[in-house]
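Much of our argument rests on the idea that a fold can be written as discrete symbols. In the encoding step, the backbone of a single protein was reduced to a row of integers, each denoting a local shape. This step matters because it turns folding into a mapping between discrete strings. For completeness, the protein is quoted in full, as a sequence line and a line of structure tokens:
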Amino acid sequence: MENLLQTSIMYLPGMGDVRASTLRSELGIATFGDLLEYYPYRHIDRTHIYSTGEIREEMPYVQLKGSIIDPHIEGEGRKKRLVARFLDSSGEVELIWFNSIKFIQKQIKPNVEYIIFGKPSRFGLGWSIVHPELDDAISQRFKAGTLFPVYSVTEKMKKVGISIKVLRDAISRLIDIVRTNHLPDTLPNYITKGYNMLSRWEALEAVHFPTDEDRLRRAIMRLKAEEIFWIRLRMRYIAEKRHTEEAGLPVHGVGHFFNKFFNEKLPFPLTKAQERVVREIYDDMRSGSQMNRLLQGDVGSGKTMVALLSMLIAADNGYQSCLMAPTEILAIQHAATIRSLLGDLSINVALLTGSTRKKEREKIHQGLRDGSVHIIIGTHALIEENVQMNRLGLAVIDEQHRFGVEHRSKLWDKNRIIPPHVLIMSATPIPRTLAMTLYGDLDVSVIDELPPGRTPIETTHRYPAHKSEVYRFMEQEIDNGRQAYVVFPLIEESEKTDMKNLQTGYEELKSRFPNIPIGFVHGKMKSKDKEEAMKRFVSAQDKILVSTTVIEVGVNVPNATIMLIEDANRFGLSQLHQLRGRVGRGAAKSYCILMTDYKLSDNGKRRMEIMTESTDGFFIAEQDLKLRGQGDLEGTQQSGVGGVLKMANLAKDGRIVQFVSNLIDEILSKDPTLTADPLNAPLHKTLSEYMEKNRDWGQIS
């Protein structure tokens, strides 16, 4: 059966090379299994057949029964179309097709009764339907009275004749083929029967062609639960396996470096949250198993201090540490901060980036090999093959979603015999339903408290009429020695327009502030030019930085007190919060100004309200998830055993996530390895096959 599901869709009757190739390039559908899992986005109740006399303009679609006469071609070139007249007992409707003209022309026969379905439009005194679905009323496969699936189709698909109807017919034929074979269930019997679930086959058939609303609801529930089940089980299984089987580098305690720093050089007392997280990391490192921990904390919560204390624990036990940052400017800032904090403590900190000169690079490589470099901070340069470390004990990865899994695995390979402990820092708060499902293989620590005495950032929402007032305020702040960011959106779909807006905005600011040095940076610039522009702003040579979201991550400029975001409604909540976090890093009061047009969608208004009401990153992340769904959140389109989340929506399916999590907790508490209970054999088999095909990324986050 598995071989059948792996069959190329090219071999499905009615598909052929061109259509199969288009489905593969447009939707990633290559096999029978892929097509079965291409779910309809809605169903239409086609229980009623109207007469042409009953058609009304407000109808979203209409189903008619009658005959078709006078099919003929009109127009030439791009205006070429097939036109026909549809007749029933109460009148007629004009039918028009622009695509698949020859194919449809062959379908239309005289003296045959048809059922047509489509959206009616007013045409002079009568009605027309463009691209109606067409079925022979006698041999019509789907009788009136059923729920019809509606699928998304792209323009390229339509051009090769793949309409919603063609897709529906193809899936129907596929279901007939699969029905004659036995489709094995992916969940054990005791789960499906115990919780009165449909079988996988029943759910797949019902989600495409349900007999009624209740059957459709049960099919959707089953498929959602299955997707979440496999992602969650895989993550939990990896975590259990790591805790029981994956040896970690032994850590026996803290010593000179940690104690001297903690007692003499700590610039301020740790918050309770920082103390708790350091204890969790320390307990992990001395547990005998490899640590794989995600450290979440809002901007300014003190994650770098926690990472430094963790690296000092490693140094006290004879290990080296590395800190990998996504950009050179951030790596430079980390190195400067850590060196400043350590002072005269005899810890050798080195910085390795793409800009490091050859002689210095060779010296660092030697220090890493002989162990004289205790902490190495860098960018992707750290994963180059010639970077070899003597005893890498702790790998700290900052802003993990900026690195691919392959990057992280190369870092992990620096200590292949026993993997290093791994600490992943993220300033992008992850909502609870996402964290428990997608990061179930990681232990999660949260710094949910900011250092005392921090002045909250004041966030305001302004309109074009306030622009002069905003500029005057910026001028005031700059006269007082402060700096400002001005951010424009740069969205790929409208890149040319956005680049023009960015350039226009830059010119407008130069004209408005002729005596103020203004920098300019965007993602399409060469890395060298981008780094240079950032350095000028960090060193306060430029007082205003005009930018796209390339400044979203990590840059620390304590002197910057204004974040002006143009077209703020075009950013998601989490992105707006990250941008706001670029200010408020010094002692002076900081401001975030959200500029939008007057006309906003309800969603846009709500985002502006949330931003002006709250500075809590975790609350904002939860609201972002509710407003947008997990597909739009960066780095969350994760793969499970059966592929990406195609049916489940973690933003809306919290109850199913909770149900599945409780179920898996129960299974693993009784059978942690899935080998003790014969009923769990299918789970163990499926997971083992998955692990065989996919490297255990759990060891490297």
